[in-house]
Amino acid sequence: MTPDLFEEGAQRLASQHTQSSDMNSGDRSASYGRVHQPGSLDLTHGRILYLEDVNVSFDGFKAINNLSLDIAPGELRCIIGPNGAGKTTLMDIITGKTKPDSGQVFFGSTIDLLRYNEPQIAQLGIGRKFQKPTVFENLSVFENLELALKTHKGVWPSMFFKLTGQQRDRLLEVLETIHLKNSVKDLAGQLSHGQKQWLEIGMLLMQDPQLLLLDEPVAGMTDFETEGTAELFISLKGKHSLMVVEHDMHFIERIGDIVTVLCDGSVLAQGSLAQVQADERVIEVYLGR
Ligand SMILES: Nc1ncnc2c1ncn2[C@@H]1O[C@H](COP(=O)(O)OP(=O)(O)O)[C@@H](O)[C@H]1O
Ligand SMILES: [Mg+2]
């Protein structure tokens, strides 16, 4: 199908959806400023993210090589693979940081992500957590979460911004989800490394992303924090779709459904953790003997 047909379909569907918009991703005010109505995300084909034959080269080096992959709504997908396999580049492509040389990248069945830039893709409902936590250390946990809502609405209104009752409820809900209810007044700078990571995930959740991308979320965490993160991700499953890049096999065993093994920029194997762990090719390139 040509991109134009997709676009036409997207517009048709968008108008259908807005007429009977029964959204579960924040109220209408939460979606203010989005480039698409959240209700226009078309999940009728059973996938929230779809990549086909994607290629990316850096100075002649093929970092992503005919990569095809899709993720179902509400799924928690783990991505594993050796260093340099292209895992971070995959996230860069989805979030618009890197534009592929060729291939297709769709959000739902109708939103062609290659047509949007990084801030627009965030507005469409794709949140990304980088490895290093980037919370505001001199602000409290509450203020960090509050700010996440404000910045979503653009800088100007934030000066006069007051939380609505609904936003306040959402903030409390997120606080509970990220296990920081008892630290709400603490300065973010006083939190442990793991708690800072949870706070940053909370800041993403305040924007109610439909798809969350997390790059090595438990790196540097204690066992206790890793377990807390597993619980957190399991609680997000079903409400959001998640793509998690990790090396920690115990963590993946705890959270994982389908595991995708990336190698040399394409999918080497996919299945349950037990299935991919038993795959000779995966053992060869990644797990070791
Ligand atoms: N901006 C870039 N410029 C040049 N090479 C890059 C760039 N980003 C990634 N690469 C290369 O692409 C390959 C895949 O990198 P990356 O996606 O970071 O792998 P992973 O996250 O799986 O470890 C690596 O060989 C890396 O050096
Ligand atoms: Mg990486």
Features:
single chain, alpha/beta, six-stranded mixed beta sheet, four-stranded antiparallel beta sheet, 10 strands, 20% strand, disordered N terminus, binds adenosine-5'-diphosphate, binds magnesium ion
Brief write-up:
With 289 residues, the chain is an alpha/beta fold. 38% of the residues lie in helices and 20% in strands. The strands form 2 sheets. A 6-stranded mixed sheet has the order 6-7-8-3-9-10, with helices on both faces. Strands 2-1-4-5 form a 4-stranded antiparallel sheet, with helices on both faces.
Descriptive overview:
38% of the residues lie in helices and 20% in strands. The chain has 289 residues and is α/β, with parallel strands linked by helices. The protein has one domain: 3-Layer(aba) Sandwich (Rossmann fold), CATH 3.40.50.300. Helix 4 (141-152) runs parallel beside helix 7 (193-206) and helix 6 (165-177) runs antiparallel to helix 7. The longest helix is centred in the first third of the chain and has 17 residues, at 3-19. The structure holds adenosine-5'-diphosphate (ADP) and magnesium ion. Residues 87-88 line the site of magnesium ion (MG).
